[in-house]
Sequence to fold (250 residues):
Amino acid sequence: MPLTAHTIRKALRAVAEPSRAAGMQAYMKSEMPYLGVAAPALRAACKALFAAYPFDDAARWRADALAIWAGARFREERYAAIALTGHRKAKPLQTLDALPMYERMIVEGAWWDYVDDLASHRVGPLLAAHPKPMKRTMLAWSKSPNMWKRRTSIICQIGFADAIDLDLLYACIEPSLDSKEFFLRKAIGWALRQHAWHDANEVVRYVEAHDKRLSGLSKREALKNVAKTRPHKRSGRDHSSYPSPRLDRR
Fold:
């Protein structure tokens, strides 16, 4: 049976709890309705649906994922489209040719549940595998008029730990430092907070150096775990001239 939005919808309806749908839609502030499929049931349904899928043709895989995405009538169907792109058997297909697919999903999805998954689990691995061209792309996205592409450029390295390209992170943050957009301010704080687990002193240094431009939200998020992590590791950068952090308590 071909994998289409219709077959996805039929399988998801079979495991849906319609009484949950309205609450899920309200929580996500989604214009697109929900079927009412809980996350574990969605994962199980996708596992069964994708078991026989032939991950041997990259062009077909991209076309099928986008067809499911475009044909979706319920939000869980779009989650399934994203799940198809991240299937373990699709790993050899994760090339730069997949980036336009992810870009389309980010721009059309335009909400944090789609974008954060795509940024950290699809765009991020492409950056790790193809650093030179992806760095250029992320720098371009960081200046995009599309907020969600900007957010992607900022959070795509979440999970990189010590392998993070810190200069790239800072360069991607820079165009959005003065933004009033909540999702950009939150992304900046999240990315910095995540790095603080690995180098708290460097995050303190960055926050202090950009104190006047960083929003209160970004600073609070960035420094949230500093007290837990700061004694464990000193950065290779010189922090001696920087004072201790002033947490914004607004």
About this structure: Residues 112-129 form the longest helix (18 residues).
